[in-house]
Design brief:
mainly alpha; 6 helices
Length: 141
């Protein structure tokens, strides 16, 4: 890894972050199910797109900057620390990624896309993305 993530190859950085998410998912999917009530991030079944492919799609079509990729990992730490029953799993990771990407872009970038565009990129409705955005901000405190 270079000294600065700004000089890192963007595709490699995207794959690195995707790999981190995938490793968390693999670990959490092995844990026994508890009585956790489903959150807005839960899907009924895991989507048919891998975490790596989804992250590549989001990074490309949402025009993510390197800093956005890294802050998404901070969001994972912050949310899981404040919400111990929430886990990043194969049922939550895709919705978490698109929502974290939206918030990261809106927080760090001078120009960003509309929620309608992000929803299309993420494969969710705009209404659902709006709800997910409010939920993730609530979870961050």
């Amino acid at each position: 890894m270079p000294d600065s993530y700004y000089t890192a190859d963007f595709e490699k950085l995207t794959r690195l972050v995707a790999n981190m998410f995938a490793r968390v998912v693999a670990h959490n999917d092995r844990l026994p199910l508890n009585s956790q009530k489903p959150t807005r991030f839960h899907s009924r079944a895991p989507p048919n797109i891998s975490v790596d492919e989804y992250m590549q799609r989001v990074a490309k079509y949402a025009s993510l900057e390197p800093a956005c990729l890294l802050i998404m990992l901070i969001y994972v730490d912050r949310i899981c620390e404040r919400n111990p029953t929430f886990t990043i799993s194969s049922l939550t990771v895709h919705r978490f990624i698109i929502t974290a990407a939206v918030i990261a872009c809106k927080t760090l970038c001078d120009a960003y896309c509309t929620n309608a565009h992000y929803a299309k990129v993420g494969g969710v409705s705009m209404h659902e993305l709006n709800s997910l955005e409010v939920e993730i901000l609530r979870m961050m405190g």
